[in-house]
């Protein structure tokens, strides 16, 4: 039973970090397309951070038998993995502060996800790794909070369109 719990936890962890990386890469490319270079660069850095965490998790996972879970077999608290940024929360004109707040929500969601494994697993190795991953996500969140504290406030109505909609006559 304990090897099964550890395998399922690691399968979820690999998927969580992989999806976070893919989503941040997508968002970085989308923001670059819209000439929002500051936010594109930030999402690119978040993708790099996710890649590093994915490499760490994948290295651990290589030493264990992981179940081959289908997309619908992952047990996420919401529809998607906890660290995959919501498309609905993204706007092509979002500010760096808004992007960082979105990333902070993702880091906190991942921390809660890992902590839930640490608190509920009956396997000691799963609890140990989940606690470690949870602490790493909490550290990432603390770093973002510190960084956010150095940013100026956003201008009001930063997401409003400058131009009236074009309506064909």
Automatic annotation (TrEMBL):
InterPro entries: Ferritin-like (IPR012347), Ferritin-like_diiron (IPR009040), Ferritin-like_SF (IPR009078), Rr_diiron-bd_dom (IPR003251). It comes from the Bacteria. Residues 1-159 form the Ferritin-like diiron domain. PROSITE patterns: FERRITIN_LIKE (PS50905). Gene3D superfamilies: 1.20.1260.10. One of its GO terms (molecular function) is oxidoreductase activity. Transmembrane segments: none annotated. This is Rubrerythrin.
